[in-house]
């Protein structure tokens, strides 16, 4: 029998939490043979709701679920944690300036980073989902100097999956025939979904599509603004699809990417592709033996270069802002 993996979920009583926890407990995060213990972190007023979700988890009688702890103390939540899904964040509300938003999230991700530093297991893997995800991950990482930088990642897998679906629709190809798509930059409206290295049934996707107008005026904005479109249609932000992407991200990180393919993840830049070292930016990545690696050697054309640069500039601006606020 395997020892259970401790999975900590913050914002566990929120809507993504509700879509996520049952899939973790059923074995979809790590594998169908990996037992898990859940740690739910919430703010005090939401503890009761988290308890309700825990009751429902009990009622599923998941064979892999070996325990659920609920707490409002990050030190307890991250004690011995092997995987941390940082979902809870402070949303932007009406009249809030960017500085206010970053400061409010600094008050969440700074202490959580420190709690991870002081309490998590040596093999801790962190995925930040809560927005602004890349910069929240940067803040958490800065508060965890003893944890290798490579363990802090931000989620752009939802953007990646959205781009896959849009490309499948446009080309009529099944999703299983599409490979090597990339989301570059920030998980924001400036992100750049890149099909120039993607393949549709073994052929270059940009050549198959052969429609620059669609690329610039339809595909890229549809992917980048999909979150807003979901809110407009559903009256609430993406939840099940975000939870699904978090599952995909961690499953890939742990179990690897298929040969010949890659995925997208926000990881700490080593300076590749002109992205300043230390920024947490989305890249094309492979995963092997529990490590993400940036795919090297891709030719970046002018169309892509300007869009990558614009999104990376936004990340640098966010980094400078949190630096000025003393959060990193
Ligand atoms: P909800 O508002 O439904 O849930 C958030 C939960 O976090 C609440 O239960 C709240 O009590 C809790 N929380 C707040 N501060 C906390 C703290 N300090 N410690 C622990 N828990 C805390 O939001 P939901 O729809 O679940 O979305 C969560 C986050 O995901 C948001 O920041 C959202 O913007 C972000 N998203 C990120 C996506 C991505 O692709 N990276 C896509 C989906 C989503 O928009």
TrEMBL record:
Substrate binds at residues 92, 98, 131, 162. Residues 6-144 form the Lactate/malate dehydrogenase N-terminal domain. Residues 156-322 form the Lactate/malate dehydrogenase C-terminal domain. It comes from Actinacidiphila oryziradicis. One of its GO terms (biological process) is tricarboxylic acid cycle. The keyword Nucleotide-binding does not apply. Catalyzes the reversible oxidation of malate to oxaloacetate. HAMAP family: Malate_dehydrog_2 (MF_01517). Coiled coil: none annotated. Keywords: NAD, Oxidoreductase, Tricarboxylic acid cycle. The active site is at 187 (proton acceptor). It catalyses: (S)-malate + NAD(+) = oxaloacetate + NADH + H(+). This is Malate dehydrogenase. It holds the Pfam family Ldh_1_C. NAD(+) binds at residues 11-17, 105, 112, 129-131. The keyword Endoplasmic reticulum does not apply. Signal peptide: none annotated. It is an enzyme of class 1 (oxidoreductase). InterPro entries: L-lactate/malate_DH, Lactate/malate_DH_C, Lactate/malate_DH_N, Lactate_DH/Glyco_Ohase_4_C, Malate_DH_AS, Malate_DH_type2, NAD(P)-bd_dom_sf. The gene is mdh. Its EC number is 1.1.1.37. Belongs to the LDH/MDH superfamily. MDH type 2 family. One of its GO terms (molecular function) is L-malate dehydrogenase (NAD+) activity. PROSITE patterns: MDH.
């Amino acid at each position: 029998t395997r020892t259970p993996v401790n999975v900590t979920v913050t914002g566990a009583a929120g809507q993504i939490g509700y879509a996520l926890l049952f899939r973790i407990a059923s074995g979809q995060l790590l594998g169908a043979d990996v037992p898990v213990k859940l740690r739910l972190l919430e703010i005090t007023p939401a503890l009761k709701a988290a308890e309700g979700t825990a009751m429902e988890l009990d009622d599923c009688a998941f064979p892999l679920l070996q325990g659920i702890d609920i707490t409002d103390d990050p030190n307890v939540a991250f004690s011995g944690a092997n995987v941390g899904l940082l979902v809870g964040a402070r949303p932007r509300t009406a009249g809030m300036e960017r500085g206010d938003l970053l400061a409010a999230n600094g008050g969440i991700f700074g202490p959580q980073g420190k709690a991870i530093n002081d309490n998590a297991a040596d093999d801790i893997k962190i995925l930040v989902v809560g927005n602004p995800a890349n910069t929240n991950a940067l803040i958490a990482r800065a508060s965890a100097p003893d944890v290798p930088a490579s363990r802090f990642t931000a989620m752009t897998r939802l953007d990646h999956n959205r781009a896959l679906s849009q490309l499948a629709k446009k080309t009529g190809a099944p999703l299983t025939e599409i490979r090597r798509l990339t989301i570059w930059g920030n998980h924001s409206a400036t992100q750049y979904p890149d099909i120039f290295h993607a393949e549709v049934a073994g052929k270059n996707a940009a050549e198959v599509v052969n429609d620059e107008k669609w690329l610039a005026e339809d595909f890229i904005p549809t992917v980048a603004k999909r979150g807003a479109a979901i809110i407009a249609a559903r009256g609430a932000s993406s939840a099940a699809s975000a939870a699904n992407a978090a599952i995909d991200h961690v499953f890939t990180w742990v179990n690897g990417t298929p040969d010949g393919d890659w995925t997208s993840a926000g990881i700490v830049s080593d300076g590749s592709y002109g992205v300043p070292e230390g920024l947490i930016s989305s890249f094309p990545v492979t995963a092997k033996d529990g490590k993400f690696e940036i795919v090297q050697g891709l030719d970046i054309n002018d169309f892509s270069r300007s869009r990558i640069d614009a999104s990376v500039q936004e990340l640098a601006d966010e980094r400078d802002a949190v630096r000025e606020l003393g959060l990193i």
